[in-house]
Amino acid sequence: MKLRRSERxxxxxxxxxxxxYELTSLNTFAEKYESAKSSISEDIAIIKKAFEESSIxxxxxxxxxxxxxxxxxxxxxxxxxxxxxxxxxxxxxxNRILPGGYIYSSDLLSTPHILKNVGRIIADAxxxxxxxxxxxxxxxxxxxxxxxxxxxxxxxxxxRRDLKITEGSTVSVNYVSGSSDRIEKMFLSKxxxxxxxxxxIVDDFLKNGGTINxxxxxxxEFDSTLVGVAVFAENQKGDRSVANYKSLxxxxxxxxxxxxVDVELGNIFE
Amino acid sequence: MKLRRSERxxxxxxxxxxxxYELTSLNTFAEKYESAKSSISEDIAIIKKAFEESSIxxxxxxxxxxxxxxxxxxxxxxxxxxxxxxxxxxxxxxNRILPGGYIYSSDLLSTPHILKNVGRIIADAxxxxxxxxxxxxxxxxxxxxxxxxxxxxxxxxxxRRDLKITEGSTVSVNYVSGSSDRIEKMFLSKxxxxxxxxxxIVDDFLKNGGTINxxxxxxxEFDSTLVGVAVFAENQKGDRSVANYKSLxxxxxxxxxxxxVDVELGNIFE
Lengths: 270, 270
Known about the structure:
2 copies of one chain form a homodimer. Chain A has about 270 residues and is of the alpha/beta class. Chain A has 2 domains: about 70 residues, Winged helix-like DNA-binding domain superfamily/Winged helix DNA-binding domain (Arc Repressor Mutant, subunit A, Orthogonal Bundle); about 190 residues, Rossmann fold. Helix content of chain A is about 35%, strand content about 30%. In chain A, β8 and β9 form a beta hairpin. Chain A is globular and about 65 Å long. The relative contact order of chain A is 0.12. The model of chain A has no long low-confidence stretch (mean pLDDT about 95). Chains A and B meet through α1, α3, β5, α5 and α6 of A and α1, α3, β5, α5 and α6 of B.
């Protein structure tokens, strides 16, 4: 397909946005758009400048026979904070309080533009690490893990609290369920994670850390390494046993009587 | 931020790609990039041409005071078929067969670039319908519903097979569980779906249709309307009670003895 330069830049930038962290050779673009490699190289230079000036991300050029370009998405501090402040205000809405002092947040974590933005913020915090997979626990963590994995362009693995026939052989570990202090089991399909993987754990809410510690113990069963832990929100009243984690939001108080939730920005912004 | 035309086109096309089905006024871009509305209008014309020539999608210009541009993603028939053929070959790998004649597919439905493409194909099949929400059932349908919802830029709702404190009040219906022929219950949070919504149901696998019929009966509990049903794969040996659905893949035979899975393209390509 032969395109004009301006059109070519639009389609090449679309390609890069949809293939983050992937090496694409300039020849691929040159053949696809019937252009000289030198023209493609000039296109990339303009795209790189535009992406960097507007904090969309960075484009790295790798020279040599097996070279090409790699797009790494990013997000500016200002945009991250603005997104988190809007989410903080939404989380603090009094009608989210459920009996027992829980907060309803499923609506936020099932809205594409919110998920996309949260995924960008979390992925950005780990963009200098090599990550092979994102791990989460069913069900509420799944869309969040999916969003982070989309930006990092790696698969995600879903730990389950029940056994499903369609998962094949599984490995199980015990964990302390935060809400009830009971010992429960979590399961991961043996096929879902390769040995030696570097894994980022993502979850919606951190209270006592039982679920996350369960996932960390699963990692050693799979001879895999923990890169980090990131959560959408942490409850600062929780008795947290997770040493290192990054949170987007921190719930500092849930006052059921006064129908009030206090929410601050999390430690990912420190 | 003042940018050169070529750079402006890159960032405007990035914006449109990330805000499908959303009306954005030309003034928004004009102010953001300190350019005349007429220049933005020319940029959009070039982006529109590039998007259409490479089947990225369509840009509609709505004139008048409350006007602007709307980007609708699309995918060419050739690209859809190519993606589905690659997935068909992966689904037909003999090592996917699990005891009992089930197929392991969790790896496919947790790989971002596959999910993105499947989401594009399913969303494209319903792009002329007005859709307010995508519905699925936990856990395996979630990433797929998320992917379709991303393209349509609407929220998704997750029906659960268990009761969770953090969902608040729920509505439940009975359904016939396909795998065991037992009557079971599924639950949907009352807050998660507005009355009068037009809903697309998405699931990973269609066998007997019990789960999907359960979701359809939930829709009437929420005074909502079914727009359509789309599944990643259907099992043609199943005794399907769902009248209308679109499938990406069709499993025509699972032969455990000969360790063979036969897979064809689904009816979405008819």
